[in-house]
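REQUEST FORM: STRUCTURE PREDICTION
Request ID: SP-0412
Submitted by: Lab K.M.
Chain count: 1
Length (residues): 167
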Amino acid sequence: MKARIAAALLAAVALPAAAQDSAAPAEGAAEEAADFSIEVPKGAHDYGFAGLLARDNRADLPPLTLSSGKPVAQGTYTLKSGTYYRIDITADGTAELALSGGDFFRAIWINEIVIEDIEIRPMGVHSIEFDSAGTAHMSFIAIVPGTYTLSIPGSHSETQSATFVIQ
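STATUS: Completed
RESULT:
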């Protein structure tokens, strides 16, 4: 008797709550039947494509440029929370320059950063630095509304930064 109770408790714990109701043995069924076939309704776990990375939710932003003495951005970037964006960050190699902005990087979810066909899927970024000429392609989803700045560390000119407004 104790063995049957222990087996029933183990079966109850091992099955999800929704399956426990449908998995109860019918009266008069053989006690040795331990084969639980749980029918999952069609589409029960079909959450579908979220649509966040879909082409119709994607926008390409004007590039950011890292060049000694030239503006980083063409203007303020106004982003919509929940939209998927792609942006190129290009350095011409005139100086070793970086873009720093931990607040901005924490307000977005970065899908990937691609540098010379190497895809990086970071958990977090604080800055991107170029030692020589090159381009980094970044794709991300804007999340937290607010005003954020990516700037060249040590510079104080407004032209040496890019402002992002997430609405």
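NOTES: The longest strand covers residues 134-142.
Reviewed by: T.R.
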